[in-house]
Amino acid sequence: MRVTMILPALTEATSPLFRPIKYSLFPPLGLATLAGYLDTDDEVELYDEHVERLDLAAMPTPDLLVLQPYITSARRSYEIADHFRARGAHVAMGGLHVTSLPEEAAAHADTVFTGPGEDAWPRFLKEFRDGVPARRYDSGPQRTLAGLPPVRRDLIKRQLYLVPNSLVVSRGCPHHCDFCYKDAFFAGGKSFYTQAVDDALAEIDRLPGRHLYFLDDHLLGNRRFATALFDGMAGMGRLWQAAATVKSVLEPGLLERAQAAGLRSLFVGFETVNDANLAERRKDQNIGRDYSAAVRRLHDAGVMVNASFVFGLDQDGPDVFDRTVEWAVRQGIETATFHIMTPYPSTGLWRQLAAEDRILHQDWDLYDTRHVVFRPRGMSARQLEDGYWRAYRDFYRWGNIWRGAAAQPGGHERLRHLAYAGGWKKFEPAWDALIRSRRVVRALPLLERTLTAFGGRSAIGAPR
Ligand code: B12
Ligand code: SF4
Fold first, then answer.
1. Residues 58, 43: Cα–Cα separation, whole Å
2. What are the residue boundaries of the Radical SAM core domain, all occurrences included (predicted)?
3. Atom 8 in ligand 2: which residue has the minimum CA distance?
């Protein structure tokens, strides 16, 4: 069987504001995971439109075309699907956006999938080979990552990515923030489950080099699993980055183990510096937590912080941008990711805003967290968009990068702060040149050096 898998380009990736490096970070892991279920004699090609241009007309027609649309790549995904369907390929689509809006996707696909793929996908493959594929498969309640076939990393063009070693060892998360895709995606079954620790360690062992990036929603979400994983990783000589919550950082014990196993930077969803917003959005796990103590604890451990913030929540007024940036700079946070609140279809937030008639349009291209797609409560849409861009500019001004570095606990950390924050945002032409050379992976040793040279202090402060 001839199979073609495509991760279509996000709309913003084709705009002039596009930051190529952001889309040359991670390979298409979801599709490479699904490819693991194919037979060894299937002919399979995996393409990622963020890092390679596709000339659809020149491409051969496969028996099966597999697409993974995200919300802002939905339009492009449907274009690709229509093209290949007209030529006789069977088109299968799944993932987050399809789960949110299966009927919309079904107009462009022969088969759609909702929820995580691991149970329905092998069922479909069998029925497709038998000539009786169904129109729709829903992930059932029995979800497990046991016995997962190895991810087909041989299909990934490693040299095109800064972080070729991305992996996930769990699915979902134990929390229920109402702006998040998570509850809708995992509806009808378990919404947080992990691999067996030995399987996760075997997956890590298969990855070349030192650097890893865990894309799990919340790597520290299951304490027992995380403890065993980090204990198993200690001594492997890995350096890694991941995501977790404020609450898990403040819990004694876990961060220490993560750091000893090689954690050097953590993505943390702070979201807002206002508790009333947190309660409204059901981000209960953040309420009443001492954010500054979490940052201090990470820094004391030599772990850098990538802080995520959302603007435009109902309790936000026009002062939210300056307050948030000022707070983040004062803490010495190395990198920040800002978002305009975006109601993804099928989330709790979507339902609330729709009921209040506050959704402005359904142009999915603009649901990229950079555009205002709803009527904000505490400011105008214009103020929100302008404030969002200003926050990015202000946070990454050299003056603020220096101030942030000065807030670090020691000289090594200050240097690392300058190298990491400055390198990420201030050397765009160098990144572009690297991408044009089609050897982005050459910058990986530099990233590893930045993470190692100054990281890994041994004394970690207890939560304060
Ligand atoms: C890596 C990542 C990125 C990378 C993507 C690059 C890449 N090559 O994949 C980059 C940095 C580009 C990125 C950008 C953004 N991202 Co992002 N990203 C992720 C992240 C952390 C991991 C994705 C991943 O690899 N997961 C692991 C694999 C195994 O799972 P998967 O891809 O979902 O695939 C499985 C299933 O979905 C399903 N499946 C998928 N496709 C198909 C197809 C078929 C046929 C079948 C059967 C099954 C199936 O089976 C797969 C195996 O289980 C997720 C969070 C998460 N943990 O998933 C957020 C996430 C996808 N991102 C999100 C967001 C909001 C964004 C941004 C808008 C944020 C921003 N402003 O910067 C942008 C733009 C995205 C957009 N415009 O829609 C949201 C998406 C919300 C939504 N409803 O679309 C997520 C879910 C984070 C969150 N918690 O809110 N992101
Ligand atoms: S903690 Fe993160 S992944 Fe979990 S529900 Fe909240 S936003 Fe989603």
1. 18
2. 159-377
3. 180
**What is the domain count for the chain?**
2
Ligand number nearest CA of 339 is 1
**459 in a structural domain:** no
Residue to probe by mutation, ligand 2, list 96, 168, 171, 175, most atoms within 8 Å of CB = 175
> pLDDT tens-digit profile of 356-405?
999 999 999 999 999 999 999 999 999 999 999 999 999 999 999 999 99
Residue nearest to atom 73 of ligand 1 (CA): 368
Q: What angle do CA 142, 143, 149 make, to 5 degrees?
A: 125
The structure tokens 């349009």 sit at 361
Q: Starting from the edge strand earliest in sequence, which strands make up the sheet with 111-114, in order?
A: 43-48, 2-7, 64-67, 90-93, 111-114, 136-138
In ligand 1, the atom with minimum distance to the C-alpha of 342 is: 65
Cα gap 91→121, rounded to integer Å: 13
152, part of any domain = no
Measured by CA distance, the residue closest to atom 27 of ligand 1 is 30
Half-sphere exposure of 295 (CA within 13 A, CB side): 23
Q: What's the domain range around 171?
A: 162-454
281 in any annotated domain:
yes
pLDDT of residue 12: 63
Whether residue 168 has its Cβ less than 6 Å from ligand 1: yes
Same domain for 245 and 394, yes or no, is yes
